[in-house]
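ok so i was messing around last nite and threw this chain in just to see what happens. nothing serious, just curious
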Amino acid sequence: MFRLLLIIFASFTLIAFYSIVDYAQNITTIPLNDNWRFKPADTVITPLSKKDLAQSLKPIEYPTHLPNSALNALRENGVIDDPFYGTNEKHLQWLENQDWIFEKHFDLSQNELNNEKIELILRGLDTYADVYVNDVLLIKADNMFRVWQADIKPIARLQGNVLRINFKSPVKIEKEKAAKSPVDYPDVYNTTRQYTRKAQFHYGWDWGPRLVSCGLASAELVVWSKAKINDVFIKQVKVSADSALLQAQVTINATQKAKAEVKVTVNGNTFTQQAKLIEGLNVVMIDASILNPQWWWTHDLGTPYLYDVDVEFYTEGGFVEKKSSRIGIRTVELVTEKDEKGKSFYFKLNGKPIFAKGANYIPQNIFQEKVKPADNLRTIESAVKANMNMLRIWGGGIYETDNFYELCDEKGVLIWQDFMYACAMYPGDQAFLDNAKAEAIEQVQRLRNHPCIALWCGNNEINEAWHNWGWQPRFNPDQKDIIWTAYEKLFNKILPEAVATFSDKTSYWESSPSRGRYDNKSYIEGDNHDWFVWHDEKPFEHFEQRVPRFMSEYGFQSFPEWKTIQTFTLPEERELTSDVMLLHQKHPKGNQLIKKYMERDYRLPKSFKDFVYVSQLLQAHGIGKAIEAQRRAKPYCMGTLYWQLNDVWQVASWSSIDNFGRWKALQYKAQEVYNNILISPVVEKDVLRVHIVNDSLGFKADLSVQSFNFTGKKIFEDTKNVEVAADTSGEFYNVSLKELVKLEDSVSNVYVVLTLRRAGQNPIQRIAYLVPPKGLSLLKQDIFKNINPIKGGFLITLKCPVLCKNVFLSSDTENMPQLLGGGFETNYFDLLPHQEKSIFYQTTATFDEFIRCFDIKSLVDTY
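result:
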């Protein structure tokens, strides 16, 4: 059965993980990404509004390139305005009903034409598309997550070949499918997206615009004769400290019988296997081994060591082809075992239980074609710098590019990988299920060699939605049976079978969360999406009162930095309730909820600019509480992934990094509270309790506890010798608030400095407050600043005679947004009285430019 499935689907496998080197003349790859033309199809949609009518399409061709979508290509040609600016998004909705034609002309050499096979390979074909070459229909595509290919040899010619793709509006086709469906499959946003295997976030989400387009990621020709490698799977048969036993499973496509030799080289050793090829697909298996292997670890626990693996293929005629890849030797498994408190949920890496620290990841742009490798690098490095060891790729987005997973391999970041299904019930007709099966096999095969892949998860929130979101009452018993049977077939049969058959022992989880948050069992077993904070308006303290076994989703909104808001607004539009700002707030109660929570814990600012700044402090304050509570609960809780890491456009959202890559206050807070060693203070019943959470080796240290008033006068000091065991959490110190305050007027005037000093290590420091930010009696005083040019930017030194809370630095001279944190090495920090703090700012701006645009503020400036 395995071989049959492999033969059926291997020809569709995405091979881009392997970097192909064309050593043989009979294998040639011809990119077809440049010099395309596109135009609206004959049936041009008539816009409804006057503004739309002014931007109506003319039936003319426009130049474009790959990767690209029709909408982005229109913007590049000046036909439409930037969809992200102002209220442009709502004026472009009519375009989702438009059909498109993309066309590419190409020539072939006689040498290329003489080959036996000329394979057209299309990736990211989004979504309903008829593909013609020289007016012959070769492909009818209906899934953007699959690779589509066809042999054009019988119709190819030397000159004047024409590749034409007729894209059909997905919205129109979905409506046709919905009308024929035996049941109205529900969706949280009442769209018809569930009928289409397309990125679901294109249809709008509570953090993203609705911009439903079509397009193509890449096109190429692979020209070959006799034989070529289709796929290489490096299976880790058995690994231990002494050796790693591997098996390379090399799939070879042959046009005729032949004798072959396949060589696998890893860690300086070459292993060889002879084979007799038959016409069609062949799987050649080569055993290999690595003695005393170096393990692949997440970056916080060790080195993410990678081995280069080269596979060479020979026939009687000599060398044919070589493929290279990188693998990591590791074991990773999801452990769900009954215990005295319920059922565990944690990941074990190389036999070691790990606490997962990270965030949920969504696509980096609504237009994926605009995301470059440099953006992937910035995103992954931001996660690493913030001490994250896991990202969850959310099921309403896309399976990421090969480059993204390669960077996670290199940087030591585990990936929780959702299949691309979210917040809707999906059809169960045979055509849909067959399509879903092919997609699952392709994607599992594509990603199975990556050591970063820790888990395949069936879907996002669909089990919870069906049982808890009020969908069922609208259906009769027969309809409910149809819907749930479709769910069972897809998420409890097709997807787990694909993972079990085609991955290297990767764990599968049916749905995230495994139970709804109103089910008390969701806190004692499985993973949890806790939205009592935000959606149900519970205070942040709820996070401290109810801690699950693994928190895979929770969050709170904030606005992006003022500099980002300026990129899509005019000055008069920079108000909380302007049409533009409301369009860039996709949650119906978002602004209201931010304000409500802000009034609980902060003083409400008067200006919108200050409101934007405090919204970020509020987000970091609330999510920081959650992270610390979950880490303090170790090992009962063994993971926390907040919603969300990044944005698809400029918007008020739950992200900790905005669409330009600028770090919000939450990203800096994550960097602090995701540290392997965390000092975690918490006030309970007039007592300050100091916990230490340790995700690394055990150690001995001195724990210093000092309290000060806001002018820096020391009130209390104590030191305790502590011994912290490896992989533990515990309380190591407690002291009454009365003792910390002594003769001072109030806890509102006091802060506490907690310092952990270990021999030969830099001290770890944490600042604690005894009341919420709203209750702090902060003092207003100018911050002294000294700015000196140094190589690559400026060194900013700050000092103040009083405590300055949440100091925020900004500069309109920023000209390298790809830099982590937007150029500042740290931000949103507390400046202690009389203590200098130096921050490096990376920029190419001149000194005069920087001085003119530099700004600094702290929380007291918003009072």
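not much to say yet. The mean pLDDT is 93.
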